[in-house]
Amino acid sequence: MSDDLSDDALRKIHASMKVVAVVGVSANQVRPSYYVARYLGLRGMRVIPVNPGLAGQKLLGETVVASLKDCPPEVDTVDVFRRSEHVPAIVDEALAHLPNLRTIWLQIGVTSDYAQQAAAARGLNFVQNRCPKIEYQRLFGELRMGGFNTGVISSKL
To answer: Which residues have C-beta within 8 Å of that of residue 72, sequence separation ≥ 6?
Structure first.
C-alpha cells in the first residue's frame, strides 16, 4: 500500500493497530512525536517508545527502548518520526526483529521507496507522509468537533 490509500483501507489499518513502536519519540511534551504517541495510547493502543537517547527512562507508562530489536515481539506497527534517509535501516531492523509486524507508518514529510518496496515484499501495510493521529481524528469524527470539514459524513457532532 502507498500514500494514496482509501479511507476504508486506513480505517482497517487503524483497527489492526494494537502495539505501536514509535521510533524517534521525544520526552518533550510539545514535540509532535510525544503528543502523537500519547494520543495513540489514549485510543487504547500500547505504545512502545523507541529512542536511544532516552533508553531506560519511563515515558507514557512504558520503558523507552534503544531500538526496534529491543521491542516486545507483539509490536504490530512501527510509526517513524525520523528523517527519510534513516528509514531503510529502521525498516530493515523492524523486518528482522518484529515477527508480528503488520504496518509500517512514516510520518508527515517522511517517505521511502525502499520502505514501500520492502513492505510490499512482506505483504505489510504501508503508509507514508501521513500522521496516524490526524488520520484517526479525520476518519473517526474527532476533527469535526474542531470545525474541520473532513469529508466523512456522520450523524456525530
So the answer is: 19, 48
